[in-house]
Amino acid sequence: MIKVPLPLILIIPSVDFMAAGLANAIIRVEHVKKIYKSKDLEYEAIRDISMHVNKGEFVTIIGPSGSGKTTLLDLIGTLDTPTNGRIFIDGIDTSKFGDDGLSQLRNRKIGFIFQSYNLVPYLSALQNATLPLMVDGLDNSDTIERAKFLLSEMGLGQKLEKKPTELSGGEQQRVAIARALVNNPPIILADEPTGNLDSKSAEIVLNMLKRLGKNNGVTIVLVTHDPHVASLSERSIYLKDGLVEKDTKTRKTKVRK
Ligand code: ADP
Ligand code: MG
After folding, report:
1. Candidate of 43, 114, 222 to mutate for ligand 1, largest count of ligand atoms within 8 Å of Cβ
2. From ligand 2's centre to the CA of 65, what distance in Å?
3. Residues whose CB falls within 8 Å of the CB of residue 194, separated by 6 or more in sequence, listed in order
4. 62 C-alpha vs ligand 1 centroid, how far in Å?
5. How far is residue 201 CA from its own chain's centroid?
6. Which residues line ligand 1 (CB under 6 A)?
7. What pLDDT is stored for residue 9 in this prediction?
8. Nearby residues for ligand 2 (ion, Cβ within 5 Å)
9. Quick one: which ligand is closest to 45's CA?
């Protein structure tokens, strides 16, 4: 009998997995369903979704209000659990983890950006950007330098000490982008990140996210209802009534320097 060392067995992907072209998938959603249950009501927000996102891709999830975009993003971000189906993040089956394990997984693998920025009002831009490092006990000088670098890259080098109320919406969202990137996560999940911004600030924020994402090899999944925002990504997944309606490659656009 040929002896194969155990670690080798664990890293050999199955033939099905390879055949399906999933070897590069950093996010894998398999037959996921989400039913919200309250007293006597049940609502099927995600009916049956399977999709994957490859390493380094910039994908938008687009669809009308109520189509299940936020629900799907929250499930991918392990902020909520599917009623059925499985989600793999960087090859890890998230259904095998409890709350503590999932929170560690999120800290290491995922940066979140929300429509309402979610900055801490009494902390400065720099402190907000370093928040994930403090949670992880990593706020040493190197990582604080990284936060400063990211903020400077986003044109906020002179505003490190400003509180969120002293910053415009676009600037606050740029602080939130720095916060999402500071841990060097392989994945960024953004839910309508430009939903509260005027079109000029939105354009700036999206281009910065795109450029920093590319420079750092980050995979970005961005939820939007805006076709213009979707046109800036490489691929768009259209949701309708909790199902994927279509999944299309977007025209390649140049990243502004
Ligand atoms: P989108 O982000 O595309 O606007 P959502 O994912 O927020 O859509 O919601 C999808 C559907 O699920 C909507 O009909 C919404 O009302 C419903 N829904 C979302 N969250 C909950 C919840 N916590 N409880 C019950 N229903 C919910
Ligand atoms: Mg939403």
Report:
1. 43
2. 7
3. 173, 201, 202, 205, 206, 224, 226, 229
4. 14
5. 20
6. 36, 43, 45, 63, 65-71
7. 43
8. 70
9. 1
Nearest CA to ligand 1 atom 23: 36
Domain boundaries, the chain: 55-82+97-249
Two tokens, residue 170: 């676009």
Q: Going by CA atoms, what residue is nearest to atom 27 of ligand 1?
A: 36
What percentage of the chain carries pLDDT values higher than 90?
73
Full-model pTM: 0.89
Vertex 182, ends 184 and 203: CA angle to 5°? Answer: 100
The ligand that comes nearest to the alpha carbon of residue 191 is: 2
Domain 55-82+97-249, CATH among 3.90.550.10, 3.30.1330.10, 3.40.50.300, 3.30.950.10: 3.40.50.300
Residue 141 pLDDT exceeds 80: no
Confidence of residue 61 (pLDDT cuts 50, 70, 90): very high
Return mean pLDDT, the chain: 88
Maximum pairwise Cα distance, the chain? 70
* 164 C-alpha to ligand 2 centroid (Å): 23
% pLDDT > 70, the chain: 87
**What is the atom index within ligand 1 of the atom nearest the CA of 67?**
3
Which band of pLDDT confidence, cut at 50, 70 and 90, is reported for residue 18?
low
Residues 46-79: b if buried by 16+ CB within 10 A, e if exposed: beebebbbbebbbbbbbbeeebbbbbbbbbbbbe
